[in-house]
Amino acid sequence: LLTVAIGVYVCVSSSIKRKKAAENAIKKAWGKRAVYKGTDESFGYISHYAKGNPSESMIDDITWNDLGMDEVFKCINNTNSSVGQEYLYKMLREPVADAEKLHELDRLADEFTANEKERITIQKIFMNMGKSRKIAVTDYIGYIMDIEQGSNIVHYLAWVFLIASILVTVLVTPVLGIWLCIAAIAFSIITYYKYKAAVDRYFICVNHIVKLLMGAKKITALNIDFLGEYNDKLKNISEELSDITKRSWLLETGNVDGSIAEILLDYLRMLTHVDLIKFNNLMKLFNDKEDYIYELIDTLGFIEASISVASFRCMLGSWCVPEFRKDNDMQLEVRNVYHPLITKPVANSINTKHNVLLTGSNASGKSTFLKTIAINALLSQTIYTSVSEFYRAPVYRIYSSMALRDDLSSSNSYYIVEIKSLKRMLDAASKEGHPVLMFVDEVLRGTNTVERIAASSEILK
Questions:
Q1: How, if at all, do strands 348-352 and 397-401 pair?
Q2: What's the CA angle centered on 410, arms 407 and 411, to 5 degrees?
Q3: Is the Cβ–Cβ distance between 136 and 82 less than 8 Å?
Q4: Which of 55, 87, 96, 409 has the greatest number of CB atoms lying within 10 Å of its CB?
Q5: How far is CA 349 from CA 327, 370, 385, in A?
Q6: What is the pLDDT of residue 250?
Q7: Spatial distance between the Cα atoms of 260 and 282, rounded to a whole number of angstroms
Q8: What is the 3-state secondary structure (H, E, C) of 102-138?
Q9: For residue range 424-461, what is the model confidence (pLDDT) as tens digits?
């Protein structure tokens, strides 16, 4: 009894400490520049959701890399779950012309800023969902849809063998029964790890989706007023996927929180294969539920991404909600705009409806100013936030050709790489749609002066 009491005390006290530490970490990170704690490999997975089903408006890789948007994303990314950070990345890659969606993001960000208690509670729920370091959340769905449903015959056979050996021990002969028990336990453990190894990565996938569903239920249970429509949507998804969460505690892999209960459950799973049986039964449920799972990811992702936007706004010295002109009004007006990654920036302004040729001495800030305008146009059309005192411009299709390098793997010299980069922008400008905002830094810099001037003149025409 004393041992049990000590064990319960340790579990409860450690749980309380973890919850307090989580809340302190959330409060400390709010309004601060986010710091990405993963590896370069894990960061690569974040883009899979955006690139898996790209929209026509997606910012291409050249522009994204030119503007250093990976670092901007890391600065904004105050999320606590994989689903949140992957959705935020997707949001930054896809400028939208839908004012209603931007207004909704703005509304949620304001609500989370004003309601600290509710925000922290929701952030803790997302923290419990966790971040995956080895795979994207949307990759999970693809893996699960590809897997063939396994049979539970071997797992039930392990049950029969174990129960039979116990009955022999009690009712027939203890000596033979004990040997049979040892054999039954060995059979259970060996077959458990054999089958578990074959589906382990899928196991992690299912487990993570279960965590998302459990988190959705917790958010719905809070019944927060300003999340009304999202509560209804999450409730509907939870009902459609309710069979997945039944007895979901059987699916936990490893000792998640170091508790004694989890250790005992691990032994129970090894002996009875209950998690493998549950897993095989779940595979039947995923076949026609793919759309609901994606809707779950989008809904949860949008909620947490709006929290990150709110935190980012609190971090900024000054910012504004952008105003958008009609496409036929080409005036670009930005006042006291600055780069979000510069600690002590010098703000600048621009007001023009014509093409701009920017000149100046070395290290005077030309490239930084170009990137600043481009990044602000992108942030305005994605997270409805301009790092300036005033921003008014049309909705753009944004392209750049700034930080190029030769591509030896494709046998392309720097000149060819730049020509292709410039051509993609001219092709975009020839298509119908919103006006194209182009940024070119030191055009054809490796070419001799005479040909460089001649070619640049034709490009500008």
A1: unpaired
A2: 80
A3: yes
A4: 87
A5: 21, 12, 17
A6: 62
A7: 27
A8: HHHHHHHHHHHHHCHHHHHHHHHHHHHHCCCCCCCHH
A9: 999 999 998 899 999 999 888 878 889 989 988 888 88
Is 22 or 282 the better-scoring residue by pLDDT?
Answer: 22
Query: With the C-alpha atoms ordered 95, 98, 103, 109, is the resulting torsion angle positive or negative?
Result: negative
* 8 A C-beta contact, residue 262 and residue 251: no
Q: Tokens 């799973």, residue? A: 269
pLDDT in tens, 2-19: 888 887 888 777 778 888
pLDDT at 60: 92
Contact present, 69 and 59 (Cβ < 8 Å): yes
Residue 349, SS3 per DSSP? strand
Chain centroid, CA 396 distance in Å: 25
Which residues lie across from 348 on neighbouring strands? 337
Q: CB-based contacts of 123: which residues, under 8 Å, 6+ apart? A: 26, 80, 304, 307
Residues 6+ apart with CB under 8 A from 332: 350, 351, 352, 353, 373, 393, 394, 437
Residue in the structure block whose two tokens are 């997975």? 45
The Cβ-side half-sphere exposure at 201, using a 13 Å CA radius, reads 14
CA atoms of 44 and 114, how far apart (whole Å): 34
pLDDT at position 261 is: 67
